[in-house]
Amino acid sequence: xxxxxxxxxxxxxxxxxxxxxxxxxxxxxxxxxxxxxxxxxxxxxxxxxxxxxxxxxxxxxxxxxxxxxxxxxxxxxxxxxxxxxxxxxxxxxxxxxxxxxxxxxxxxxxxxxxxxxxxxxxxxxx
Length: 126
What we know:
One of its GO terms (biological process) is ossification. By secondary structure, the chain is an alpha+beta fold.
């Protein structure tokens, strides 16, 4: 039904965010999104962050974002290599000091650096 889909899709500006409800590690989540013709959800402003947070809350699962740590420890960038234009780190994050290369979103919409081999909700953007 349309309602069932509604919970899984959010629009923000030109972007659409969707989840298949599956949990995967960072590499697998990215691959699923790319196979579907998109990429991992990558919030570039407050509106996009909120759209992703709505999906994260719907499933009550943390989700990986399309952001990774650069060669420089403590510096993060979009998976495209572009520098971050927007951040919403949780208080005292990022704190992995090079050991946590990926970024997850908490159910309150804030971000935390995390190891890439955890299983997190797959949220894609199109």
